[in-house]
């Protein structure tokens, strides 16, 4: 089944434009999900909204948004008022500037999407924009209304298509100084720094997402399998806490033990099937 587009519109740079579609690139829908049940009956529990003073259930038609201006005091906003305040979408990803691919701190990265032409007629203009960006080694900044919010989007060439990553606004990214203000300013030099650099050099590798397993998800899958099969689940043994050791001695031992990382011969997840194993293929990024 072909993926369903999250959004359709136009990608425009100058007077060149083409119809495009936005598709989800990263999703949590394949994770194991649980429902809340009544322990006594085994029936599913449904969430309801109740008035915090009267305790009575509030019907959906009587529920409105409210902004708290003081303790217990709210400004009520009707759905029509909110809809009128949100900018209308012109369905256009209008490129405002081209920047270096590494010019944006990844703290501002929000969510990635695949951007592709909607039909064969749009392919030529789409390829022109993509290849122009690839040759110049630049990314594009654009703005549009996505999902009823004005969003800034970073667009980059990726294989035969484009990656459109929504960006966090400046007010959404917390100042690092608030966290790092109390970190002491310590100068590392001499043998200690040399050993640290040696360890990093011997551990140097490449990123392959298939090398990493979601241990939490795998543990949940094994627990569910055990319950389905009616057998006792054996929880993994807890790791012993590491004793506090001399930093210099620890570096020396690490440097002596450091070896180039060997690529695993098989995916660690191949040992057993998950309760739900969606079938899908994924093209590896180039």
Offer a quick outline of the entry.
The protein is α+β, with helices and mostly antiparallel strands and 286 residues long. It is built from six helices and nine strands. The strands form two sheets. It has a seven-stranded mixed barrel. It has a two-stranded antiparallel sheet with strand order 3-4.
Order of strands in the sheet with most strands? 1-2-6-9-8-7-5
Query: Could you tell me the mean pLDDT?
Result: 84
Radius of gyration: 26 Å
Query: So what's the overall shape?
Result: extended
N/C terminus separation: 24 Å
Write structural notes for this entry:
The structure is a single chain. This protein is of the alpha+beta class and 286 residues long. It has helices spanning 79-85, 123-136, 177-180, 190-202, 215-229, 247-257; strands spanning 7-13, 16-24, 65-70, 73-77, 92-100, 109-117, 138-146, 149-158, 161-167. Strands 1-2-6-9-8-7-5 form a seven-stranded mixed beta barrel. The protein has a two-stranded antiparallel ribbon with strand order 3-4. The chain is extended and about 65 Å long. The two termini are 24 Å apart.
């Amino acid at each position: 089944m072909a993926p369903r587009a999250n959004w359709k519109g136009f990608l425009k740079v100058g007077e060149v434009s083409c119809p495009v579609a936005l598709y989800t690139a990263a999703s949590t829908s394949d994770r194991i999900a649980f429902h809340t049940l009544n322990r006594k009956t085994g029936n599913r529990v449904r969430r309801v909204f109740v008035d915090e003073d009267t305790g009575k259930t509030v019907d959906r038609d009587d529920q409105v948004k409210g902004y708290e201006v003081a303790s217990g005091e709210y400004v009520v906003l009707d759905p029509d008022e909110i809809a009128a305040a949100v900018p209308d979408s012109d369905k256009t990803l209008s490129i405002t500037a081209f920047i270096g691919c590494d010019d944006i701190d990844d703290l501002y990265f929000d969510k990635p999407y695949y951007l592709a032409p909607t039909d064969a007629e749009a392919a030529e203009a789409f390829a022109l924009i993509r290849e122009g960006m690839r040759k110049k080694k630049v990314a594009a900044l654009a703005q549009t209304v996505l999902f009823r919010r004005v969003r800034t989007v970073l667009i980059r060439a990726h294989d035969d298509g484009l990656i459109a990553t929504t960006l966090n606004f400046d007010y959404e990214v917390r100042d690092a100084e608030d966290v790092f203000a109390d970190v002491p300013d310590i100068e590392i030099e001499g043998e200690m720094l040399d050993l640290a650099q040696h360890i990093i050099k011997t551990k140097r590798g490449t990123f392959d997402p298939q090398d990493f397993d979601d241990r939490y998800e795998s543990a949940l899958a094994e627990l569910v399998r055990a319950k389905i099969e009616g057998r006792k689940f054996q929880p993994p043994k807890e790791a012993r806490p590491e004793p506090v050791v001399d930093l210099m001695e620890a570096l020396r031992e690490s440097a002596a033990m450091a070896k180039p990382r060997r690529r695993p011969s098989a995916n660690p997840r191949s040992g057993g099937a998950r309760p739900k194993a969606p079938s899908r293929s994924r093209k590896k990024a180039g």
